[in-house]
Amino acid sequence: MEKLNLRSDDSYLEVACGGGVLLEMALRTVSRAAAIDHSADMVELAMERNKAAVDKGIAEIVEGNAESLPWPDKRFSCAACANAFFFIEHPQLVLSEISRVLGPKGRLVINTLPGKLSLAGMVFKRPYNLKAYSDEQMQLMFYAAGFRVAVVNMVSGMQVWVAQKP
Length: 166
Description:
Radius of gyration: 15 Å
Domain Methyltransferase type: 13-110
Structural class: alpha/beta
Organism: Desulfosarcina ovata subsp. sediminis
Number of strands: 7
CATH architecture: 3-Layer(aba) Sandwich
Transmembrane segments: 140-162
Order of helices and strands: EHEHHEEHEHHEE
CATH class: Alpha Beta
Pfam families: Methyltransf_11
Strand order of the largest sheet: 3-2-1-4-5-7-6
Shape: globular
Distance between the termini: 21 Å
Keywords: Membrane, Transmembrane, Transmembrane helix
Number of helices: 6
């Protein structure tokens, strides 16, 4: 979350929110937030965890497909996708959708498996059809979606990509 440099005037989007832990963290800072996950069970958990914010109307959590985000163009100032990008079937489409809903200078942080699955491969052994992309593939996907990559770091065996729209 620190890589997003969240501000009180931010409107935050989380793609593949899971149980809503990061959403809860973001809501400590941002003025409004939304999240999407394809799993009804995860959406239910995220709703329970963030019930107060949902009830106040500052958070919206929906079940849906990240390939077709249900929000209007330029709705958000920042977005995150944590520990899920490697499951996404059409990552270019998802990045393009995130770009669509982010406004100018919109910030995006994605943490994912490194392209070389050395350590990650030992842990996961690829049982879930995990997709790992090379640095070049990731950069090309970001650029094709209209992002400029600012930083790539390794944190606890995961790649953290920080990108921004012009």
